[in-house]
Every structure is written in structure tokens, then in C-alpha cells.
Amino acid sequence: MTTHLPNSIETSENDEVTAANSSKELDAGALFVLKSRGSWLHCGYHLTTSIVAPALLSLPYALSMLGWLAGVACLTIGALVTFYSYNLLSLVLEHHAQLGHRQLRFRDMAKDILGPGWGKYFVGPIQFGVCYGAVIACILLGGQSLKFIYLLSTSKGNMELYQFVTIFGILMIVVAQIPSFHSLRHINLVSLLLSLAYSALALAASLYIGYAKNAQAKDYSINGRGWNRLFGSLNAISIIATTYGNGIIPEIQATIAPPVKGKMFKGLLVCYAVVVTTFFSVAISGYWAFGNQAKGTVIMNFMPDDKPLLPTWILLMTNVFTLLQVAAVTVVYLQPTNEVLEQKFADAKRDQFSIRNVVPRVIFRSLSVVIATTIAAMFPFFGDINAVIGAFGFIPLDFILPVVFYNVTFKPSKQGLMFWGNTLIAIVFSVLGVMGTISSIRQIVVDANEYSFFANV
Fold this sequence. Notes:
Helix content is about 70%, strand content about 0%. The chain is mainly α. The protein has one domain (about 30-210, about 220-450): Amino acid/polyamine transporter I (Up-down Bundle), CATH 1.20.1740.
């Protein structure tokens, strides 16, 4: 006996009226930040920005630790499993919306499906940590991109990394004031185009360097032996899983205007068309061009020993596109923090743009960005720390909980493929999450001697 995905019950047009009437009961975070006014296309923009980020430029490095067969297999499995799990999560959200209880946040789902403790003590803290960690990492990446552009423009520069991180942080203080998630739809459309642009440049650059007459010999053997190779493979899997990570699917679906039936699936199709195009092209071309010498991001391979292998304008364009897109990614991952701050300090009975609500919004959003910028400047090795956060956070949120939520909500037959397929996904990725966390912590220990506050890396 097999169990099929349930078809959503048709939602009447009166849902919009009901939603409008019930909005008075929403807290300020849900009412102001998670406005339900978007279309499926806007949802696709939000999804793409939250997944297709500059972290994809590290995929050739991940493949260098896995090799061709395992690397491409992990990349493919990551795409299939996340698309499947995000769709399951969407179906659960639709189901509860049809029952008259639309869930707008990940922690709300955990609370309603698994119990209050899960939402308050597990999902809520993990999601907040993952998203705020992504904000810190993006601000650091933005500073590094600014520094790279600066060094390409002048040979006599003496500015240090923390100064560029601070400049990018100031920009983010301004952008963070955008009032709601829905307000980012046009920015996220531009972000989608930017991700396609710098991925195309990275692809072209890798092919150009790989086919050059003086191209280095390509070695596709995997570096290291024994335990080092094992931990390297686990790190690579964590990198791939984190690159596919989202962590805010319920909040993105919350931006869709009712009725929500089928809209998230269309948005996922838009997103994964971009995911497949960018992830596979950059990963395969970068690994083909540089083999096991692929560096942390493929852009680093374009300029070994500060000697560019490409025309300077190509490097500048790639970094400018990356810089602009990482600003959009940063503000997307600020939304869970913004929603919590709005819930705590805004008055839902007052207008969103009243002085009573605008002043605390500006103060606390600015403060959250200042804290993230300070951490990014102090810990320029935050990528290692973020790997732990990713393994411990993105894998549970994006690979494990969606299948658990589905099984608990719809209770598929234990004799069917759906139940055991979901259970297998949960078990396998639970093991990978634990092993990835251990591997990431080990990497921090290995790199600890190279760490220093405000390092100019």
C-alpha cells in the first residue's frame, strides 16, 4: 500500500476576508514584518535569494574533497532532497491554513505539531542562530568583497579588512530599515539576476583559465589520507548541505497572499531552476579547471599570489555582482531577527509607520546590525564557526524536520513508501548532521593557531 502526497483542499475566496479580519489578532512581528501580500513569483524571488547566495562559489572546493563521482552525487542528492523537503513543509503549512490556523513562523509549526517545548527551546533558538550566523557571515563576505575590489583598483592600499567590514555594515544598517519581508520582492528579483550574472562570469572564467595554453596540470585525486580524508569529506558534505540551506521556508510562505494553495510549489520551481543552473555550472567548471587545488571560493583561484589570471574588469564585475547580491542575502536573513524585535518592541494596535513604532524599529534593527558587524570584524575566521552552525542548524531545519512534520501531520501508512522514505531521510541526515558538526569543530581546533582578532585576511 502506498501513500501519495495529499491534494490541497480548495480554499474559498472568503479566506482573504477572514485573513484580513484576523490580522487584528496578530502580534506586531507577524502583522508588520510577515505581511501576506505576495504572489508565487515574489515567493520565488525570496526563495532564490535565500538559497542561491555567494556561498555557491565554494562548491568547487567541496568537490575537491569528494572527487567527481561522490561530489556530483552529493550535489544532486542535496538538490533533490531539499526540493522534496521544502515541498513537504509547504504542504503542511497549506494543510493548517485550510483548517483555519495559518502558521507564519517555523517555531509556530514546531509548537503546533510537536509541542510547545520544541518551538521554544529547539526550533526557535536553532533558526535564530542559523539566520543570525548567516547575517554575520554575509557581512564578513561583503567586507572581503569590498577589500578585493579595493586591491584590484589600487596597488598602494593600506586599509584593513575590519574597515571594509565596517563600511559594509553601515550600508546594511540602512538597508535593514526596509519595513517588511514583502517589501524586498523587487530587491530579491535583482538579487536573482545578480546570482545568474556572477555565476556566469565564474563559469566563463573557469573555462578560460582551464583552456589556457599555460594552464596548470589538473589533478583530481583527493588530498589527504585516512582520518584527514574522512573529515574532509564530511566538511564537504556540510558545505553542500549549508549551501542548499534555507531555514526560513515558513516565513517566506507567510508573505504569500491567501489563498496559498500551490503557490509555494511554483515559487520552488522558479528557485530550483536558478539553483540547478548556478550550482552545477559553477561547481563542475571550477573543479574541472582547478582540480584538488580549488580554494575556499573559486574567485581565490582566479588571482593566485595576487597575480590575476583574468582581465581585471572581469574580476571587478564578479566581485561587484557578488557584493550587491550579498547585501540582499543579508537583509533576507535579518527578517527572523526583525520579526522578533518587532514582536517585542512594536505596538500592533498602532500604525506601522507611527512614531511609536518607527523609533524602536530603527534603534533595535540598527543595533542588531552593529552587533553582527562587530562580530564579523573581530572574527574574520567566522567561516569555520559558521560551518558548525550550518551543520548543527541547517540540516535539522531543512532535511530532518520537514519530513518529521509531514509524517506527524498526515500520518502516512507505515506500510507505504512515503513513511519509510521520510524516516530514512530523517535518520541519514541526523547521522550526517552529528558527524558534520564533529568535523566542523575539529576544523576549528586545527585552524585555531591561525586565528587572531581583527586579522587582515
